[in-house]
Specification:
This protein has about 220 residues and is mainly beta. The protein folds into two domains: about 1-30, no CATH class; about 30-220, Exo-inulinase, domain 1 (Jelly Rolls). It has one helix spanning about 5-25; strands at about 30-35, 45, 55, 60-65, 65-70, 85-95, 100-105, 120, 130-135, 140, 155-160, 165-170, 170-175, 195-200, 210-220. Strands 1, 3, 4, 6, 11, 12, 13 and 15 form an eight-stranded antiparallel sheet that branches.
Length: about 220
């Protein structure tokens, strides 16, 4: 900015613009890196089979008996944060016959399948008919997966109010709005929108799934 003799005006403009810059840098829509490629910082596996999760060559490897890895937060200020609206992203690669899942609005549990929140399916060639890109047991992608085993693909989950969108490689595979009178599936009473954290599923010893570039941004 060229001020000439209007130094006072320039100072005022500089000072008044400073809070705007700080606000932009700390805005709620900034992406948060959830996996550092080195260890499981920010995550907690339940004690069922914690060795089902490990890091190798910058990639999260999910390989082993049933267990779930829960997001607990990137710092002391956000530990056990209860998220409502968000955009969650990961790159995923499955091996043949693998089954897995990505949970949101869930809560830490010591064992079993998470009872709270929704599961987004990860499955190309496992015998389960419910395939990648579906909202498990609610809005399923049946029989044919949009992607193949052995290839990295983008998995995006967006929750805004009652609206849930899942995208695989940028293509919408699920676009579902939870009804006001929603009745969850039988034996899945916690499968509903509320608030909570994220979890990654290890399904069984024959299911090998890889994850990287795991990140999220909070939405208003």
């Amino acid at each position: 900015m060229h001020c000439g003799n209007k130094l006072f005006l320039c100072v005022i403009l500089a000072v008044t613009s400073l809070p705007l810059a700080l606000t932009a840098e700390s805005s709620s829509d900034a992406w948060v890196t959830m996996f550092n490629g080195q260890d499981l910082s920010g995550w907690q596996a339940n004690p069922e089979n914690p060795d089902s999760f490990h890091v190798e060559d910058g990639v999260l490897v999910v390989d082993g008996p049933r267990c779930h890895l829960f997001w607990i937060g990137e710092s002391e200020n956000t530990k056990h944060e209860q998220l409502t609206n968000f955009h969650w992203h990961a790159k995923v690669k499955t091996m043949p016959k693998a089954n897995g899942g990505l949970y949101f609005h869930t809560q830490y549990e010591e064992s079993g399948w998470p009872s709270a929140g929704y599961e987004c399916q990860v499955n190309q060639t496992h015998k389960d008919r419910k395939k990648t890109g579906g909202l498990y047991a609610v809005a399923d992608v049946l029989d044919t997966s949009p992607v193949k085993d052995g290839e990295w693909y983008d998995y995006d989950i967006i929750v805004d109010g009652k609206h849930i969108v899942i995208k695989i490689n940028g293509v919408v595979t699920t676009d579902w709005t939870e009804p006001d009178d929603w009745q969850p599936p039988k034996n899945m009473s916690g499968r509903k929108l509320s608030q909570g954290t994220f979890a990654i599923q290890a399904h069984d010893p024959e299911s090998v799934v890889y994850y990287k570039d795991i990140r999220m941004r909070r939405l208003p």
